[in-house]
Every structure is written in C-alpha cells, then in structure tokens.
Please model this.
Amino acid sequence: MQRYPFKFLDAYTREDGDIFFGRTEEIDNLYLMVFQSDLIMVYGASGTGKTSLIQCGLANRFQSHDWLAVNVRRGGNINESLEKALQDAEGDGAGIPAKGTNPMTDLDWLDEDLSDATTDAPQAAPQHLTPLARSLKNIYLRHFKPLYLIFDQFEELYILGTRDEQQQFIRTVREILNVKQPVKILISIREEYLGYLHEFEKAVPELLRKKLRVEPMHLDKVKTVIQSIGALPDSIVRLRAGEEDALSEGIFEKIRGDEKTLGIQLPYLQVFLDKLYLQTTGDEQRQAKAVFTLDALRQLGDIGDVLRNFLDEQVLQIARQYQQPPDAVWRVLSPFVTLDGTKEPLTAEQLQQRLPTGHHALGPDFVQNTLNDLQNRRILRYSEQNQRYEIAHDTLAKQIHAKRSDEEIAILEVQRLVKSQSTLKADVREYFTEKQLLFIEPYLNRFRPEAEEQQWIAESRARVEAQKAAAAREAAAEKARIQLEAQREKQRAEEAERLQKRAEQGQKRARLFSIVAGVVAAAAIVLGIVAYWQQQQARQAAREARISLIQSYQSDIVRFEGEINTAKRNLKSLQQYKAGQDVINVETLEIDSLTQLIKTLKVQIKQLEQ
Model:
C-alpha cells in the first residue's frame, strides 16, 4: 500500500518505524542506557525529535512482549495524569472481568508479601503495599511486560506546575525507583530547563547519571532521511535519479538559510518537505505520487523561516474563510502559548476564560470553528483523553509568541501574576501590592478571571485601602505629635529664659552676700576685741551682746539654708531643660557662696560660745 512518508509536525510512533530514519546512533545509545539504569533523561533543543526517538526509535528495538509504554503528559497536573494513565493501563486487557468476579483477576492478595513464607514457619502478618506499588504490580501481572513510564514535555511541570505538584512528583519517582518491579522511567525535557531540576536531583541523585542529548540533524543525517524516504518501496515520493545528493544538500541549505548552523530542526525539515510535495503535486489530500527534482526545489525559492511562513499562510486562509481579520485568529492561538514561548494545553472552557472580553471579544461559533480548522491544518492537536487542545509543536509556539503585541504580552503577564497567587494555598498567599493592582486593574476587562481570582483581587484592594487609611491616620498622628513637641519646646525655651534671669539675680545676691560676710567677719573681730578689753568692766553686758549676736547669726544661717535649697531646685530645672553652661555656673556659684557664708557664721557662733 502506497503511503505519504512525511509526519509534518506529528511525532513518530511505534507504527512509523519503517519511515523513521537518521537516528540510528541515538537509538543504540538510548537502548543501552535502558539496561544500565531505571531512570533515563533525554534532553535537547526544541525540534530535535526527542519524543519520536523514544516512542518510535526506542520502542521498535523491543519486541512487543518486552515493551509496555505508558505515556504521560502533565495536562492539568502531572500527578493526576500519572494516576489516570496507570488506571488505564490496569484496565487495558481486553475481556478482563471486573474485580471480585474472578479469582485470577481479583488481585486483593497483591497486598500480601509472601516472599519469606514457608510451610514450617508461622505466617507473619502481611505487609501492605502502597496504592502506587499495588498499581504497578497489578499492571505487571495483567500484562507480564516491563513497564516504561514516559514523561514527555517534562518542562511543563516547571513552566505550569506548582511547587506542591513538583514536590509530590519527586516523592512519587523515589517510590517508583524503590518498587521491586520491572519499571523504567524515561523523562524527555528541553535542555534549557535542565537547571530547574536542581532540587529534583538532590532528592533523586541518579536523575542525571544516565542522560542522552539529542542533537539537531546535521547534513549527513538529513541526507539519510531524505534518501531513505525516496527509496521506500511503498512511498509516494521519489527523488530524481542522479540528483539525490544535490537535492538533500539543497534542501538542507534552504532550511538553514543565512544562519549557517551545523544542524537543522526536524519540524523545519518536515514542513519544508510537505511544502515541496504540495508545490510538486498540488494535492492537499496527499495521495498523488511525486518526484522531487532540483528544478522543483529551485522554483520553491528561498522561503526564509519555514514555520513562520506556514503559520502566516494558514492564519490568513482561516481569516478569509470567516471574513475576519487575521488578528482574530492569532488571538485564538495566543492563549495556547506561555509567556516563555512554550506550549500550554487548554480545554475549550479554559480558552474562553483566556480570550479577550468587551469590544475585543470573539464569538463562540468563530472560536470553535477556528479551533476545528487549526486542528485540521495540524497546527493544533486535540486529546480525547484529557479534552485539551495544544499547539502541535514547540517550534510553532515560538512563532506564535513572536506575533504577540505589547498589549497581549501585558495581559498574559497580568494573568500569570493573578494565577501565581490564587493557585497557592490560602495560608501562604500574599496580597497584591498597590503597585501590582495598578498594573492588573486596567486589563481586568480584557480577560475573564475565575471567581477565586476575582475574590483575591478584591481582598487585596480592600487591604491596600485599609493600609492607606491606616497610613493617613498615622501621618495625622505624627503631625499632631510634632506640633505638640514644638509647643513644648517653646515652653522649655521660655522657662529657660526665666531661669536665666533668676540666675542673674542670684549672682547679684551672691556678691552682696560676700560683702555682708566680710562685714560680719570684721564686726566679729571688732566685737571680740571690745569684749576682750571690756569683759572685766562689763562682763554681763558682753555676755548679753554675745547671746544676741549668736541668735542673729543662727537666724541668718536658717535663712541662707533656705536660699541654698531654692538655688538647688533652680539648678535641677536648668539641667533638665538643658540651659547654657554659663547659667548653670552662676547658679552653682550662688550655692557655693551661701554654703561658705554659713560655714563662716557657724565658726563665729562657736567662737562666741567659748
């Protein structure tokens, strides 16, 4: 039976082994690694054919009884997708009775570990398997084939997944590697995301011990692909005899263009060959026979970026069909691509939530018809299993991302920012800041936030308003505090001025007291002399005079002590209000003068009493 030999943007599967060429070396290396480790990493740039290498190249190295592949894509959650894929594998056997109806298929006994049981020894309590281990064992006993868990597009876990989802998957991988079952794990990832696996590798050290890098197709491999396809007995495509090498080299040169790289991407090669076929035959049903020639290749001309031109052509045709501007079709495609330019699978409902609203809204009929056309033109794929559409290849996703306007990118940034918080658990969410809300709110009418997202935005806005009100109250309180402090400072200045004047008056009194003390001292001396010379004549009169003078001195001492206490209080006030040092010195001098005067009077009293 004649067949069309090109896969366009579809991955090669086990059934395509007869048309899969150019990867013999990589297949051999991968096949060897499978027997060296239970965990293998396949990585490379987008468009190098990682998926085809595993699902077609490696798969065809095994006999059917040695290969049970369970392909897992993240979908909405990689852990849920793995669980669903294992459930499907458990029920994969045709005609298997329902659980509980047949002792050969009722596998409750799988929970028991009888490896150490003997007829002579007492039977130990059964060791129960975890649900995952039970499922893996169940699959093996239903199929009796080694199980290959193939995680394709693994970068989606880090582009779209949450931290909880990543942590749970790491725990699952660790458990699988400890299960006593013939289970292999193959992970396919774009090489620029290898750095995201640091935490994964810490938990699973063998993660990167066996890894294979898939290189772009260099000229020799491209020759192998093109010439092998042309030589297939059942291929509807042939190469003109004698032009095989020139055709292969010409196709390689046209695809790499001015970049002069050493290799080209497989999607570019597939799209280019499909375009060459359509130019040669004009048969969009792809059933007519074709002969590729150098003349046909030259007529194709320099088409530049193959996928970009292909996308532009398809979008333009769909837009004309529905009498819409091409921008409307690009808007349908845009949500299927992340801000990083990678694929994001979406259900029809999720797509509607991502599409613009308001005067930019697209009719639901137009959206559904466009999805159907994009699927028919092999730009989108649809998975019946998880009911999601996705871009056919990451290389197409990059082209769609390049078409986005600044406004579209801003809307996607808003969507990612909103989802980054609303998808977290309530106890670890962070409210949006006022700056973030100012960025978010102008675009809220351009897409449909989910109810939980709208609620979180509303709560964030209320919190920002409360913070602003609290800040305003705090500012008002601070202003009042400053005014009160200024008033107090004024009062302290007035008090300091009053104390300054009082100190100056005290200084004058101190000088006066010094004079009085001198006078008193002189008078005491005079009185002593008089008393000495007159004591014989007027002993009684002198005694009375001394008693009167002592009483006068004692009265002065009491008065001076009162003055000292008053001066000390003034000095304390001056120090409290931080008066100038000169003022403090004056007050201290007054205290010292009064103290010295009291000492002098006490000496005089003592002398008079003798």
